[in-house]
Amino acid sequence: MSELPTLPTTFAELLPIVTVPLERRPDGDVVSSRAVHDPATGQVIGLAPVHGAEEVHEAVAVAKDIQPEWASWSHAERSAVLNRAADAVDAVAEPLAELLSRETGKPLNGPNARFEVGACSAWLRAAASLEVPEETVVDDGETYATLTWRPVGIVGAIGPWNWPMMISIWQIAPALRMGNAVILKPSENTTLSVRALGWVLNQVLPAGVLTVVPGEREVGAVIAGHPDIRKVMFTGSTATGRRIVEASAGNLKRLTLELGGNDAGIVLSDLFDDASDERRREIAETLFWGAFINTGQTCAALKRLYVPDAIYDEVCDALLSVAREVPMGVGLEEENLLGPLQNPAQFDIVDRLVEDAKASGARVLCGGFPDRDAPGNFYPTTLVADIDGDAALVTEEQFGPVLPIIRYTDLDVAVAEANRLEAGLGASVWSADAVAAREVAARLEAGTVWINNHGAVDPRIPFGGVKGSGYGLEFGVEGLKAVAVAQVING
């Protein structure tokens, strides 16, 4: 494999590649653009292009021409390209992380910007390493039938703003690995990050197998309904997921939908049994980061925590001690681990839900009173105790740095409360007894249930939601099969 091409080594070198004042189409028409603001400071980073339906059609036409050739490559050849793409991401990791921090507000350190860029290369390598061998279904001397997995053709990928690079790779890597071409629409809130990632990948990918088409809802709607796009992968809200289902119905498009979550965690009364002070601190930190990873802006973050009355105050105090020590601020300042909300609309949602909780009589342990005159979309780290299970902060997904802690006395009731919402992405059980924890986990209606952890995804382990949180699996061999079609040869 040849050496990597020359790639930008600084943010100053990377930025002009992805942000331009005007972008002209071949016919000379000017593509519209919009200003991109740093959510931590409000400053303008640059201009991002806004494309439309015509650019989607152009990308599909190119993809239709190149995809059959790409599909003809062996799995080993495509895997080698994905590994080289991972090398390219690693080579530009620091500029990518700085751009990501500036556009999303997430800090460089902690489970944030550098972590996300590192996950991009890790998922590329994981997809490259997986095997999807031909299966012999029947071989009894009379019948010989095999099952193989072939490319879908063109995959449309529509990503969110909270983990824009990482989730784009979750969509891109398996689709390319299985021989598909990809048309990728980033969130309009995080266009520059995904354009930068796409540009880096395209320095080593065959031309035309990956095209990033930035735009607004029109672009997503065209991708969902386009007859030549055979599969759509979407991560985002349940409401948008429903619109994609409707738009795709005309041509029976295959779908993978990872939709909104309102993940419940259930603490059992033995959580701290025989635990040393050090172990208690470890448990509290793991609980905290299960909820506050990426400043709470994660679909599979812990969104509501049910704690038994016997250790309720103990758990609240342990979480409070961690929350007070985790610094929040501008992401480019190395000491910070929590940042602002990515956009003002999300700030308003979080603010509304906390104000509702306060008005209902819930007890704010920390945070809850943002400085509305300060620059940036910062909402303070907030823990809310003694809150009713019917409060909006519990029943609606807050998607921010706020955790409601609900007291319970009957485990069966807690399980029922965890299950009663339409969300079913993830859940967790926290206990010193692994057997007891797994018994409770089996009763929870969620695609993934973690034991003494929350939100820890692994490229080898399938991941997906149930109920209103979507359907279809990502990651692992099942994730590769989800971007392919089965073919049985019988005879």
From TrEMBL:
Keyword check for Oxidoreductase: yes
Domain (Aldehyde dehydrogenase) ranges: 34-484
Keywords of the record: Oxidoreductase
Alphabetical list of SUPFAM superfamilies matching this protein: ALDH-like
Keyword field contains Oxidoreductase: yes
GO molecular function, one term: oxidoreductase activity, acting on the aldehyde or oxo group of donors, NAD or NADP as acceptor
Active site as annotated: 258
Family assignment from sequence similarity: Belongs to the aldehyde dehydrogenase family.
Name of the protein in question: Aldehyde dehydrogenase domain-containing protein
Native species: Corynebacterium terpenotabidum Y-11
Lineage: Bacteria, Bacillati, Actinomycetota, Actinomycetes, Mycobacteriales
